[in-house]
């Protein structure tokens, strides 16, 4: 599982690609805050000991996207665009987890819940491991290396999404 920083960057890239970058400074800040929060939110499942399960799935993405479109979360201007941006931002999370190094079983994410409870993982280790074992000596070196790798891979993708989807100043 990548770090919250990696997940935030990926969610921004997905949300911006889907809905475009909001024009006004205030709207843009709210859009960024919401998209980043959506990118990180699936890992709140750590708190209830159901890590990488239902929250890391297309089912969860659809539920949150439906709620966002209904409540008109300010990430896009129309309900379909809000739903699409939120769904893709949420899905970017299990996608990154499935592409990243996973060091604890069950490996991967329950990506196709509720249709399947199987855990999916590519085994590609595109992203390095993130350690939550803060009491170990190698905690900082492992995580600093992995976070640097996430930024190198994901920051250009987020920057490209921003560049191509930003609206011209009216
Ligand atoms: Zn996760």
Describe the model.
Helix 1 runs parallel beside helix 5 and helix 3 runs antiparallel to helix 4. The protein has 170 residues and is mainly α. It has 5 helices and no strands. The chain is 55% helix and 0% strand. The protein has one domain. Zinc ion binds next to helix 4.
Task: Draw up the topology in text.
Blueprint lengths: L3 H16 L5 H16 L17 H14 L7 H21 L39 H27 L5
Keywords:
170 residues; mainly alpha; binds zinc ion
The sequence of SSEs as H and E is: HHHHH
Beta fraction:
under 5%
Could you estimate the helical fraction of the residues in percent?
55-70%
Mean of residue pLDDT values: 94
The number of helical segments is: 5
Task: Give me the oligomer status.
Answer: single chain
Ligand list:
zinc ion
Q: Which spans of ≥5 residues are poorly predicted at pLDDT below 50?
A: none
Instruction: Report how far the terminal alpha carbons are from each other.
Output: 40 Å
Shape: globular
Computed CA radius of gyration, to the nearest angstrom:
16 Å
SSE class? mainly alpha
Largest sheet: none
Give the total of beta strands: 0
Tally of structural domains: 1
């Amino acid at each position: 599982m990548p770090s919250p920083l990696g997940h935030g960057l990926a969610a921004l890239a997905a949300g911006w690609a889907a809905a475009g970058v909001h024009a006004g400074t205030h709207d843009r800040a709210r859009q960024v805050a919401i998209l980043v929060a959506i990118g990180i939110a699936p890992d709140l499942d750590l708190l209830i000991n159901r890590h990488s399960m239902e929250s890391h799935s297309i089912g969860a993405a659809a539920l949150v996207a439906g709620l966002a479109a209904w409540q008109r979360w300010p990430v896009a201007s129309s309900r379909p665009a809000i739903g699409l941006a939120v769904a893709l931002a949420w899905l970017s999370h299990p996608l990154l987890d499935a592409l990243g190094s996973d060091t604890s079983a069950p490996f991967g994410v329950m990506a196709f819940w509720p249709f399947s409870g199987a855990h999916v993982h590519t085994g590609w280790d595109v992203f390095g491991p993130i350690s939550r074992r803060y009491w170990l000596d190698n905690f900082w070196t492992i995580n600093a290396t992995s976070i640097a790798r996430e930024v190198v891979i994901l920051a250009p993708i987020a920057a490209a999404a921003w560049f191509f989807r930003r609206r011209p100043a009216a």
